[in-house]
Amino acid sequence: DKTTYKTRKAALTACAANTKCLGVTKEKAKTFRLNSSSSVLYSKDRSVWVKGGKVVKASGVNWSKKSKTKLSGYYNKTTYKTLAKALKACAAAAGCKGVTKEA
Q1: For strand 61-64 and strand 55-58, is the pairing parallel, antiparallel, or unpaired?
Q2: Nearest CA-CA partner of 22 in 41, 40, 38
Q3: What pLDDT shows up at residue 3?
Q4: Residue by residue, what is the 3-state secondary structure of 25-44?
Q5: CB-CB neighbours of 43 under 10 Å
Q6: Taking the CB of residue 18, how many other CB atoms lie within 10 A of it?
Q7: 59-66: long-range contacts, CB 8 A cutoff, minimum separation 24
Q8: Mean pLDDT of 67-93
């Protein structure tokens, strides 16, 4: 399907209504596309929203939990004793894009 949407809201609404849609990709300004895969690949120019999974809100930011994955490129080497503290610190740091729980 080559359909694109001008807003994230329109694309997410269309994806929610489509059982084959597993996510939305922002390809560029005002260009969102539905995806039939939930595999996340690195792309410095794009953002994705994946259907399903647990969403946690912390420090005014929605965080989507992805099990059995890890993030590359540590922002820093600081460790936190709680998820809440790690998410708060990440939300406050402009370069931080996510949090990884290590065993």
Answers
A1: antiparallel
A2: 38
A3: 95
A4: EEEECCEEEEECCCCCCCCC
A5: 10
A6: 13
A7: 59/87, 59/88, 59/91, 59/92, 60/91, 61/87, 61/91, 63/87, 63/98, 63/99, 66/40
A8: 83
Residue 5 pLDDT level (bands cut at 50, 70, 90): very high
Torsion sign (Cα): 94, 98, 100, 101: positive
Task: Identify the pLDDT of residue 41.
Answer: 73
The position carrying tokens 């949407």 is 5
Cβ proximity of 66 and 53 under 8 Å: yes
Q: Assign 52 to helix, strand or coil.
A: coil
Amino acid in position 54: K
pLDDT for 68 beyond 80: no
| Amino acid at position 24, single letter | V
